[in-house]
Amino acid sequence: MRLVLIGDGESPHLLKWARALKPHVDLWAVSSRGFLPPFEAVLGPERRLALNTTPGVEGGNAALLASLPRVVAWLYTIRPDWLHAHYLTSHGTLAWLARGFGVSGRLCGSAWGSDILVAPSRGRLTAWLTRRVLKACTLTTSDSMHMAARMRELGAREVMVFPFGLEAMPPEPPRKDDALFFANRGLEPLYAPQRVLELFAGLAGAWPAARLVVANDGSLRGELERRVEALGLAGRVSFTGRLDAAAQAARYAEARWYLSLPTSDSVSVSVLEAMAHGCIPVLSDLPANRELVVHGRNGWICAARELPALEDLRGLLQRREIVAATNREWVANHAMFGTAVERFVARLYAFEGRA
Q1: Which candidate, 274, 280, 272, places its Cα nearest to that of 297?
Q2: What is the value of pTM for the model shown?
Q3: Tens digit of pLDDT for each residue in 265-311?
Q4: CA distances (Å), origin 187, targets 153, 265, 336, 352
Q5: pLDDT (0 to 100) of residue 59
Q6: Does residue 281 share a domain with residue 259?
Q7: Is the pLDDT of residue 97 over 80?
Q8: Whether residue 129 sits in one domain with residue 34
Q9: Exposed / middle / buried, residue 44 (Cβ in 10 Å: 0-12, 13-18, 19+)
Q10: Which of 28, 212, 226, 229 is the right S-S partner for 4, CB 3.0 to 4.6 Å?
């Protein structure tokens, strides 16, 4: 079965999909940007098409759509059975249009979060395109029940739900630092890093040993660094920038607490990684987060604008080893990516009558 991935080849998430799919299908890929170097080990250059555009989640995708004739010509030579689009308002639109110009194969799509939970509210055109793409997909995937429900409201046909999980479980972490907090979401407004800093500052006054490591980067980094100085926390908050997978795993393994407070999200890979490393997650009150965390039992949900004080977290800290084991077990049982992709591929084969 010949399947063409259509997405951002510079995203480690698309690379993970490619690695998981490769053993099961005849795999090809179109990237709106370029391809990460590790793609070389998955797909040879003759199986990849890099469009080298710079699409954004909030628009600026004209160059991507202008690449349609090139994409169509390339896909004509491949004759795919499936076009598998990732992030539906950009790459999904490209795949849908390609089929309209006679490219063979059915369309399936994987929603990534803001393409369903945010983008359709930005304007009538985006909402219309989202609906058209979802209705055109024979099968879609969602990483949370909450987002799947929204996809069905927008016209999706069959939706498979599974977390965008881990390729392998990390080893059980060594002794953790009970006073160490880790955050690694983008330093952009969507991920509310100011609120992460506000939460830590509130704890730091009552907990002299507490420290915060902030990984990743973004447009708010300078503002956040200045705020740390103003709060007198320069020696207790460190900004590392983007980390590679090994360095990030080391941070997860060391930290007792993981902070993620976006204003909109589906099930986050970062939260799953933190849980797999035995961290205690402190999360914003979003439906997808409540699919992972029972408030006060295996993590903390920050309701509305309320942030936890040290006293609120003491119960979780006292049960830290039980919480770590519970979170690791949940990920192992429910969020292993390879197993989920095997089910996805089996469904595609069933549609082809090849089950």
Answers
A1: 280
A2: 0.83
A3: 888 899 999 999 999 999 999 999 999 999 999 999 998 788 999 99
A4: 31, 15, 27, 43
A5: 47
A6: yes
A7: yes
A8: yes
A9: exposed
A10: 28
Are residues 77 and 226 both part of a single domain? no
Q: How far apart are the first and last CA of the chain?
A: 11
- Identify the CA nearest to 142 among candidates 132, 123, 127, 157: 157
- Could you tell me if 196 and 267 lie in one domain? yes
At 248-264, the pLDDT tens digits run 999 999 999 999 999 98
Domain that holds residue 219: 177-334
Neighbours of 250 (CB within 10 A): 13
Q: Is 208 exposed, middle or buried (0-12, 13-18, 19+ CB in 10 A)?
A: exposed
214, β-bridge pairs: 183, 239
> Confidence class of residue 56 from pLDDT cuts 50, 70 and 90?
low
- Spatial strand order of the sheet with 106-110 comes to 48-50, 26-31, 2-7, 82-86, 106-110, 139-142, 158-161
Amino acid residing at 54: T
Q: Is residue 170 part of a domain?
A: no
- Please indicate, yes or no, if residue 316 is contained in any of the structural domains: yes
Give the position of tokens 């002299």: 208
| Domain assignment present for 35 | yes
CATH number of the domain residue 323 falls in: 3.40.50.2000
Question: With the CA atoms of 277, 22, 144 and 304 taken in that order, what torsion angle do they form, in degrees rounded to the nearest 10?
Answer: 50
